[in-house]
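Thread: fe (iii) ion complex, take 2
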Amino acid sequence: MLAPGTRTGSVLVDNIGELVTNDPTVGEGAIGLVRDGALLVRDGEVIYAGPRSGLPAGEANGRIDAAGAAVIPGFVDSHGHLAFAGDRAAEFAARMAGEHYTAGGIASTVTATRAASDDQLASSVARLVREAALSGTTTHECKSGYGLSLADEVRSLQAAAKHVEEVTFLGAHVVPEDYSDKVDDYVALVTGPMLDACAPIATWIDVFCDRGAFDGDQAREILRAGIARGLKPRIHANQLQHGPGVQIAVELGAASADHCTHLDDADIEALASSDTVATLLPGAEFSTRAQYPDARRMLDAGVTVAIAADCNPGSSYTTNIPFCMAIAVRDMRMTPAEALWSATEGGARALRRTDVGHLRPGARGDFVLLDAPSYLHLTYRPGVPLVRSVFRAGARVR
Ligand code: NIG
Ligand code: FE
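Output below.
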C-alpha cells in the first residue's frame, strides 16, 4: 500500500469487489455499481473506472490490490462552518436534558471567534479538514458567519480559503449582539462594506433565513447584493420552521437550499422543477433532537438531494459523512445507494461541480478504499471506521 503523502504519476486500484462510479452507463443504478472492477488514475485524473476486463493496457507506477474491497468516490461535503473557536458542549448537554435549540447560541461562538488569532482560525479549519479525511471527505465547502464584523468575517474567509476549495460568505448568519437594536444597519453593513471586503475571498453567498435570524425580505436583499457582486447564492432554509427560504432559493436560482426540514407541497414542487439541490443535514437534527426532513417525499417528487455534515460547534459538531448517511437511511427513509449518491454526486451538484463526486473519466482522482466488501457496509455498520485509505487527485491523503 502506498504511504500517505505519496505522489505517483499514476495509480491503479485492481481487484475491487464493488466499485461505485456514479456513472449509470458503466454500472448498476444511479451509483453505477461495478462488481470486479478496476480504477486507473493518471496525473490526478480518472482515466478508467469500470470492469477489470476493460482496463486499458499499460503500466501504472502505483498498484493497489483491493483484494475484493469496495471503492467509492470521495465524499463532497457541501455545507460546513469550520472557521470558529471554542465549542458548545455544555449547550449540547443542556439540549439533551430538554432545552430547545435556538439560533441564539451562535452568539457565544462569535465571542470566541472574535478573540481567536488568524492562526487559530486557520488551524480550526485545517484540523476539521484532516478529521474529515479520516471518514473519506475529499471536497469541502466552508462558510464564515462566526465573525459578524467586517474584519472578523474577512479573517474567517481567509482562514477557510487556506484549506478548502469552496468558500462562502455568511455575514448574514445572525444579527450580532452589538447590532441587536439596529437590524437594518446590520443588513446595510452586510450588503455594503462587508460584502465589498468579503466578495474577493468567496465564491458563494449564504443567508440563514429562519426564526431568530433573517426574514425573507432581508434574505432576498442580501443574496441579491451578493449576486450583483459576482457571488453565487445558496441559503439556510426552513430549518427551524416553515418559511420562505426554499422559494427564495428557487426564485434566485440558488445552487442549494440547505436543511429543508419544514417543507410544504409547494416547496417540494418548486425544488423538483428547478436546478436547486435540497441539501439535507442529518447531523443537525440528530444533535438538536429535531424532526428529520422527509427525504423520501423529496426523492419521490424528483428533487435532487445532497447530504452534508454541517460541521459547526452548535447544531452538528461532526465531520463524519458515513454517520450522516446512516441517519438518512435509518430515519429519513433513503436507501443506502441514495445516501451514497447524495453524499458524493449530490454534494457536487450542490456546489455546481462536475469534476468531483463521481469516478467517470476526467474526474479528479478522489476516491476511498473501504475496509469492507460493499458500500452497503457504510450504513449497515454505523460508527465503525471502514475507511482504509483516501486519495485526492490521485495522491494518498490518509
Ligand atoms: O447550519 N442554521 C444555522 N447555522 C448552523 C448552526 C450554527 C450554530 O448553531 O452555531 C447550522 O445548523
Ligand atoms: Fe449551516
